[in-house]
Amino acid sequence: MNDKEQERGDSTRENQARAGRRPLPEVRPRKEQRFSWIWLVPLLAVLVGGGLLARDWMAVGPKVVISFDSAEGIEAGQTRVRYKDVAVGTVTDVKVDHARGKVLVTAQLNRDGAEYITREGSRFWVVRPRLGLSGVSGLGTLLSGVHIAVDMASNEEEPDEAVYEFEGLETPPEISAERPGTRFTLEAEDLSWLDIGSPVYFRRIQVGQVVSYNLNDDGSAVSVQIFIDAPYDRYVTADARFWNASGVNVELDADGLSVQTGSLTSILAGGVSFAPASEFDTEPAEANAVFKLHGNQQQAMADPDGDPMVLEFHFNQSVRGLKIGAPVDFRGLELGEIVDIDMAFDRENRQFYALVQARIYPLRFGPIYERMKELDKDPHIARARMLEGMVARGLRAQMRASNLLTGQQYVALDFFRNEEPVEFNATEYPPVLPTITGDFDRLQQQLGNIVSKVEALPIEELVQDLRNTLQSVTTALNGVDGKLTPELTSTLRSVRKTLAAVDQFVDNSSSATGGLEGTMRELSAAARALRALADHLQAQPGSLLRGSPRDRFEVTP
């Protein structure tokens, strides 16, 4: 509005006032503003959004890629990565690696604690409901869904370089990296009843468990890794002995029937027990030390046997009942065991014989072997001299029955003074120890000699000689019959009747002679039956208690 318009408005109001009319209202326009406060609202929103983005950016950590054999239950944007049941990340992508046949799971970690996760040795696995020897786990995932668990590496030193690619585990690790304790390795011939999670006992108290197992590179043994919890790991000394306490151990040997059982858990899941060999050795073993896993406690706690020695026996008799693993005994002391039984042929004598090899431990001979070692530092020469001296004094090997119930036999070493000297060279490999027949074989030979002597008797010639003698006596009596007195004549008649009866008795057609010959034949048959009995006892000594076994095969008409 300009000045002229304002003067015109003023004059109009004055005229209206003079005329007695109400003056018109004065309109004054608002001054123009260059800034509006309404723009503070979007500006504030931008600032808040930027702060949230900055906070999220600062909270987001690196991405890691985990490879699994299967992505069952894993969903991008839904599955969480958890450490001790605390969310530390989220799965952002799942894809298949066709080259390796794996599933690659990409997870976005939180920045807080990510430097501990991205270390060499961190382990990832998918938590699902599982039923194992250690119990039931992962039941919470039935409602919340599966998640990826992580176990951080226990290395407290700062890593040289972060790791962002990991190989996921298909099964959860039995031992977490932060669990205090020590790992050891056991070498065994086979796994037996052991499995991951099988308990380890010390004085029947569970102090650890089996965490893994694998075959050696050459496949000759099984390596079993165990974990002993602290503070019990200090009881594993350098000379500790480990043995298998799995299931129920039933043994039937020369000592009879023995049954050894552990706890119910070890019966169902297997187990390992250990004990120090000496109460005076209290120095703990180093971590990852290797120990031998024995079959039972008796073998584990036995004294060291030293290096074994192979012996060979040649038996010219049946070895039925002699099995691999049968003991080699020396006057009640077990020196070793049978390791091989074969059949061989003697070209010189044109006959087969049983070739038996045994592994013995000379250290079990005691002080005599120690003295031989003092005379000669070479253990091979010391063994040879000891065996040669013992064989020269009558040492022989003999098969003996160890259990009449089962028919098992063993090889016994003993001194037989009446045996003829034999040539023996203990320096050859393997040395062949001389043998003698066993007890049953000697019984068989004695019975055979009796039968042979009975069969060699001239039964028919003896009967014929007796008949001829009686006929000669009858003829002589007939010649002097007329010259004797009547009294003598009657006496001779009585004698003649008696001789006639005797002659009738020994006549070929008489029943008495046939009865005598039948008796001799029965005696010969009885001798042959004794020989058959000796053969049967040699083959099946256990039949004295069990009776004759049934035939295994039946002929179908």
How would you describe the overall organization of this protein?
The chain has 557 residues and is α/β, with parallel strands linked by helices. The protein folds into four domains: 59-167, no CATH class; 181-301, no CATH class; 309-437, no CATH class; 445-546. It has 13 helices and 25 strands. It has helices spanning 3-18, 40-59, 114-117, 141-144, 264-269, 297-301, 367-375, 379-392, 439-456, 459-479, 486-506, 511-539, 543-546, and strands at residues 60-68, 80-83, 86-97, 102-110, 123-127, 130-132, 135-137, 147-151, 165-167, 181-188, 199-202, 205-215, 222-229, 240-244, 248-253, 256-261, 272-276, 290-294, 309-315, 327-330, 333-346, 351-360, 395-403, 408-415, 432-433. The strands form five sheets. Strands 5-8-2-3-4-1-9 form a seven-stranded mixed β-sheet. It has a seven-stranded mixed β-barrel with strand order 10-13-12-11-17-14-18. Strand 20 and strand 21 form a beta hairpin. Helix 9 (439-456) runs antiparallel to helix 12. The longest helix is centred in the last third of the chain and has 29 residues, at 511-539. The radius of gyration is 52 Å and the shape is elongated.
What is the topology?
Elements: H1 3-18, H2 40-59, E1 60-68, E2 80-83, E3 86-97, E4 102-110, H3 114-117, E5 123-127, E6 130-132, E7 135-137, H4 141-144, E8 147-151, E9 165-167, E10 181-188, E11 199-202, E12 205-215, E13 222-229, E14 240-244, E15 248-253, E16 256-261, H5 264-269, E17 272-276, E18 290-294, H6 297-301, E19 309-315, E20 327-330, E21 333-346, E22 351-360, H7 367-375, H8 379-392, E23 395-403, E24 408-415, E25 432-433, H9 439-456, H10 459-479, H11 486-506, H12 511-539, H13 543-546
Parallel strand pairs: 1-9, 2-8, 10-18, 11-17, 14-18, 19-25, 20-24
Antiparallel strand pairs: 1-4, 2-3, 3-4, 5-8, 6-7, 10-13, 11-12, 12-13, 14-17, 15-16, 19-22, 20-21, 21-22, 23-24
Helix pairs in contact: 7-8, 9-12, 10-11
